[in-house]
Amino acid sequence: MKRHFSLSLAVVAVAGMVHAQDGTRDNAADSFDQVVDRAIVQENDLLKIMRGEHPVAETYIQDLGSDADFGTAPKSDHYFLGKLDLSKGVTADSFIPKGI
Prior knowledge:
Oligomer: single chain
Number of domains: 2
Number of strands: 3
Shape: flat
Number of helices: 2
Largest sheet: 3 strands, antiparallel
Structural class: alpha+beta
Order of helices and strands: HHEEE
């Protein structure tokens, strides 16, 4: 959650700079609190949208091991394929049968 918020905050800040450069915003600089408030509003709006959607999510975790040439190298992967559901907190329904 912290990484997601930080990324959103960075996107809001960059978007604000772009608007300022194209003249669609006041020249007065927004305070840090105003930027954070806008980021929080946008995060809440995104969560409202995502609660009504159930996107398919694919990800994996990669195990690393020792390697003589590179120090560490990938040894195995653990895949996840499922449907994300935020309507009742963070839950996911896996499409991969258990034990595989």
